[in-house]
Amino acid sequence: MIKIAMIEDDLELADVLTQYLKQFNMEVTNYEEPFLALSSLRINKYDLIILDLTLPGMDGLDVCKAIVKDFNIPIIISSARSDITDKVIALQLGADDYLPKPYDPRELEIRIKTILRRFNHSNVQEETNNKTFILDSDKREITKNGTYIKLTAGEFEVLSLFIKREGFIISREDIFENSDILNQDYESTGSLAVLINRIRHKIEDNSKEPQYLHTIRGMGYKFTQ
């Protein structure tokens, strides 16, 4: 469910847009008062904001400035103000889009989806860039702080699985079920433990005191970074 905060004092329009967007799995909460909206943003989590510029008690451009200053939420300006200066200022302040009224709700729906797709991709990319280990499945490469780690096929498969399921405990059975290379010889001879140990030697500063790849006794392994 996409959660949207709308700051709009035209309650009839707000109701029309709320009902329309609902069919696209978008839940809209409208705030007629901008100060109430700003207070709510500190308590509730929203994926996007639809902001009118002509509001009671506070100009929409000031609301936009306050949101950009304190929150990382995409903003679509929805306004009947036709002055190009308002549009330029809004975009300069950090709004992501400007939709002049009147408009077809279908256009708003498309713009919401486009902005969220771009915004979410940007956030995922930023989060990935901050990781110590980066998995490139297409190139079948794993890097640590930008440095390529030389791995055997089996080591790559297992470490890839750990990176994809970071923070979750993975049992021995899970490793075999998700591997196209490992076979039952690993399980029967204890060679899986040897393979895990080889991986630790390649990724840990001290393999005897692992920082990333942990053994969870009686359950399996957990990878964190």
UniProtKB/TrEMBL annotation:
Statement: the UniProt record of this protein carries the keyword Transmembrane helix: no
CDD domains attached to this UniProt entry: trans_reg_C (cd00383)
Transmembrane segments: none
Sequence positions bearing 4-aspartylphosphate: D52
GO molecular function, one term: transcription cis-regulatory region binding
SMART domains: REC (SM00448), Trans_reg_C (SM00862)
GO BP: regulation of DNA-templated transcription
Residue range(s) of DNA binding per entry: 125-225
UniProt keyword annotations, A-Z: DNA-binding, Phosphoprotein, Transcription, Transcription regulation, Two-component regulatory system
All residue ranges annotated as the Response regulatory domain in the record: 3-116
Matching Gene3D superfamilies: 3.40.50.2300, 6.10.250.690, Winged helix-like DNA-binding domain superfamily/Winged helix DNA-binding domain
Protein name: Two-component system response regulator
Species annotation: Arcobacter acticola
